[in-house]
Amino acid sequence: MFTGIIETLGRVVELKKDSGNLDLVIASPISNELKIDQSVSHNGVCLTVVEVKDGAHRVTAIDETLKKTNLGSLQVGDAVNLERCMQIGGRLDGHIVQGHVDQTGTCLAVEEQEGSWLFQFKYAPSRNNLIVEKGSICINGISLTAFAAEGDTFKVAIIPYTYQHTNIHQVVKGAGVNLEFDVIGKYVARMMEFS
């Protein structure tokens, strides 16, 4: 489990295809602190650390993960949002995030607004995912509040700290992002199907 509060940015230093899988080597300030078998969120995707070496760590994304996320479009040099799992007894500063991406979305617009940024995204509502006004949404692993939720689009506002300390500053119009919808909302929606 994660909170959607990004701990640090990593950089892709190596990508290697292995059959249907993709090995990613990520250099980051926390890589040397990681342990093999540890779960770490990479752009909102929970992946297992399989190697730690020289200030970098390696994870493997299987074909199923590559089909449902934007990890397959990463290039060497790209920034990756990283978060270690939450600790029991710690503060939940964001919201409950599983690291299980529901689908990718597309950035429709980015607008600078005197010190903050407004992003609009589109997603496929046919997958029964839902967004509620002022509800939680996780974009590339970042816990955010959605608003202007209409049909298959929603907006988020980004403060300067988040803009500078996550890879949201690299998201441009047309870019694909990983979306994880609020887990509590997903369970409520599922229960309503049976009532």
What does this protein look like?
The structure is a single chain. The chain is mainly beta and 195 residues long. Helix content is 12%, strand content 44%. The chain has 3 helices and 13 strands, in the order βββββαβββββββαβα. The strands form 2 sheets. The chain has a 7-stranded antiparallel beta sheet with strand order 10-9-13-7-8-12-11. A 6-stranded antiparallel barrel has the order 1-2-5-4-3-6. A hairpin with a 2-residue loop joins strand 4 and strand 5. The chain is globular.
Shape: globular
Distance between the termini: 29 Å
| Series of secondary-structure elements, N-terminal to C-terminal | EEEEEHEEEEEEEHEH
Q: Describe the largest sheet.
A: 7 strands, antiparallel
Question: What are the SSEs and their pairings?
Answer:
Layout: E1 8-18, E2 21-27, E3 39-42, E4 45-53, E5 56-61, H1 63-68, E6 79-84, E7 103-113, E8 116-122, E9 136-139, E10 142-145, E11 147-150, E12 153-158, H2 160-165, E13 176-181, H3 183-193
Antiparallel strand pairs: 1-2, 1-6, 2-5, 3-4, 3-6, 4-5, 7-8, 7-13, 8-12, 9-10, 9-13, 11-12
